[in-house]
Automatic annotation (TrEMBL):
Role this protein plays: Accessory subunit of the mitochondrial membrane respiratory chain NADH dehydrogenase (Complex I), that is believed not to be involved in catalysis. Complex I functions in the transfer of electrons from NADH to the respiratory chain. The immediate electron acceptor for the enzyme is believed to be ubiquinone.
Region (Disordered): 1-27
Family according to the record: Belongs to the complex I NDUFB3 subunit family.
Residues annotated as transmembrane: 52-73
Keyword Nucleus: no
Coiled coil spans: none
Membrane topology according to the record: Single-pass membrane protein
Full protein name: NADH-ubiquinone oxidoreductase B12 subunit
GO biological process assignments: electron transport chain; mitochondrial respiratory chain complex I assembly
An annotated GO cellular component: mitochondrial inner membrane
Chief subcellular location: mitochondrion
Record carries keyword Amino-acid biosynthesis: no
Protein source organism: Xylona heveae (strain CBS 132557 / TC161)
Length: 87
């Protein structure tokens, strides 16, 4: 026996048509209460900025140390050079 054609619901109610006709509400009544989550100290940038405290200072300090080491802490001894007879 073949399934019946047409609307399988005997009442004629089509949930897809109902969902399509409802749409989104014109104004969200809770929008004002949710707005504080995304502004001021809770904005995306401010939340990200506090994720790595001290990273900027540490990066600058490391770069200064690498520059100091490169310029002033050169090794004048040729360790490992062939023919080195003195110690």
């Amino acid at each position: 026996m073949a399934p019946p054609r047409g609307n399988p619901n005997p009442t004629g109610f089509d949930p897809a048509k109902f969902a399509a006709s409802s749409g989104a509400p014109a104004k969200d009544p809770w929008a004002r209460y949710e707005q504080w989550r995304y502004t001021g100290p809770f904005s995306r940038w401010n939340r990200f900025k506090g994720s790595f405290p001290g990273l900027g200072i540490a990066t600058v300090a490391f770069a200064v140390y690498c520059g100091y080491e490169y310029l002033f802490l050169k090794d004048d001894h040729a360790h490992g050079a062939k023919g080195d007879s003195h110690h």
